[in-house]
Amino acid sequence: MLTIFIVTATLFAILYLYFTRNFNYWKDRNVVGPEPTVFFGNIMESVIRRKHLIMIYKDIYEAFPKEKVVGIYRMTTPCLLLRDLDVIKHVMIKDFDLFNDRGVEFSEEGLGLNIFHADGDRWRVLRQCFTPLFTSGKLKNMLNLMSDRGDKFIKMVEKICDKEPEQQIIPLVRKFTMASITTCAFGMELDEEMIETLDKLDSLIFTTSYGNEIDMMYPGILKKLNSSLFSKMIAPFFDNLTKTIIEQRGGKPTNRKDLMDLILELRQKKAIEPMKKTHDEQVTTLELTDSVIAAQTFIFYAAGYETSASTMSFLLFELAENPDIQEKVIAEVDETLKRHNGEITYDTLSEMTYLTQVFHETLRKYPVADILLRNAKADYAVPGTNVTLKKGQTVVVSGFGIHYDPKYYPDPEKFDPERFSPENVRNRHPCAYIPFGAGQRKCLGMRFGQWQVQVCIIKLLSKFRFEPSTKTMSEF
Q1: Does residue 18 lie in a domain region?
Q2: What is the CATH number of the domain that holds 83?
Q3: Which of 74, 116, 162, 310 is most buried by a 10 A CB count?
Q4: For residue 78, what are the β-bridge partners?
Q5: pTM of the full predicted structure?
Q6: 456 annotated as belonging to a binding site for a ligand
C-alpha cells in the first residue's frame, strides 16, 4: 500500500513539475503578467469552454493598463501579449519579415493548403497568387451576383414577415450569406439538399476542437503529425465540389467572373512563384491543383459565411437600439439608390459614407479578427522594452482589448459611427482599428466581406425598419 502511495505521489510530483516547468519564464525576465494555472496556463476557462479565448485576452489586456507587453501562457507555452500600438505596428508592419507566420499551420496537404493557415514560402506564393483576385476591379463583377441574391433574399424575408414580423436576425441573414458566398465562389444555385448539407458542415467548421490547445502546448505538433484541425467530413465535400465545378466548366473560366473563374484564369498561367527578395534566394513554386483550389474555396466560404452574418446581425441590432442612427442610414440609402436608379454598383457603395461608418463602428465593437497571432522567425528585441523574444515564440494581439480601450475610444460601449468620420480616422493610430488584422496578413477578403454586408443591409433597409423585440438581449 505504501509503495503504491509513493509511486502515485512521485508520479503526481513529476507531472506537476512537467506542467509548470515554464511558469517562471516571464518572471525571470521581469515581464509582468497574470499568474498561470497548472497545465492550463492563463486559458483554463477557455479550455473547459466556460469563457471564449477572445474575452480572456481582453481581460488580460485590461488588467495591465500601464504595460506595453504582458507575459502570458497559452497552456504551458510562454507567449507575449502586445498592448502598445507602436510595438504592434513594428511587429505587424515594420518588421513583418520577422513575423510573417501565424503559427497556425496544421498540414501541408488538403485543407491545410489554404492561405489563412499556410506559413513561410507557401504563404508567400499563395498571397502573391490570390491577392489580385480581391482588388476592387475584380470584385466589381461580383456585385451583380450579390445584388441578385439580395433581391431573392428580400422576397423570402417578405413572405416570412407577412406571417410573423418578429424574427431572429441571425438565421435570416445566414440564408443570404450562404446564398451569396456559394454563388460568388462556385456559381451555384442552392437547393434544399445543398442547404441542409451546408448547415451540417457549418456546425462542424465552427465547432472548436481541442487540436488548438494541443498545438498551444506543443507548438507545431499538428503540422508534424500532418493532422487537420477540422472534421474529416469537410475536406471531401470541398474536394468533390471543386472538382465537379471545374469539370462542369471544362477546366476553363467562363463569363461568370466569380471566384472559381478567377482561379481558373490563374491556373492557365500554370505554376505561380513569388518574387525573389535576393538573387540567391530559393524560390518555391505552386501548382494550382484541384486540391489547392479546394483549400482556398474552403477558407473563402468559412471566412465569408459566418463572419458576414454575425456582422450583419450586430449591425442591425445596433440600428434597432439606436433608431436615430437607423433613420440616418435609411435616408442615405434611399437618396443614393434614387441617384443610381435603384442599382447597387461600386459607385453606389462608395457614396454611402455614413453606412460605411456604421459598418466600421460595428466591427469596432464586434471585431472579426478577434485575436492576432504572429511567430518570431528570429530572436527579436521588442522596441521600447527590455524584452527579447526568442525565435519561434508567439505574440498575441487582442483586437477586442484595443477596440474597447477608452484611451482610443472614449465611452467604448457606446455605438457611435462618428468615430469613423474621415477626420477621426486620420487622427487615429493605424493599429487602433484592426478588425481584419494588420499588415500584409490582413484578411484578403475584407473588401468582399464589407460589400456583402452592405448589399444585404441596403436591401433590407429599402424595405424594412428594425426594432428591438421583447426577446432582444441588451448585451452580448
Answers
A1: yes
A2: 3.30.43.20
A3: 74
A4: 73
A5: 0.92
A6: no
